[in-house]
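We close this part of the discussion by returning to an individual protein. Part of our work consisted of pairing the sequence of a single chain with a tokenised description of its backbone. No coordinates are needed to read the tokens, only the vocabulary itself. The amino acid sequence and the backbone structure tokens for this protein are reproduced below:
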Amino acid sequence: MVDLVVPDGQQLAVYRRALAAHGLLLVVLDPGSAVCRDRNEIRAPEEQFFFDGYEELRESMQHGFGNLGWWFDTSDLTPEQTAQQILDEAPIRAVV
């Protein structure tokens, strides 16, 4: 599992080549910008991050990824529910 922001199709292509022998499932956690801001505000101060380019990043990813992977709206889910749904559905929905 690689947990990071893949900002565009070019970077995704790097991971696709590097992981081709292992298979790749792509899950994009997409709760929306308002939920991201709300979740950040309730984090401990040392765990907070500030990022104003959510919409631009999302647009770049959508353009670069095309129809690859699973864009997963996690806005109404807890971390535990998100993890369980990924385990249950990613093998079917997130194939690249």
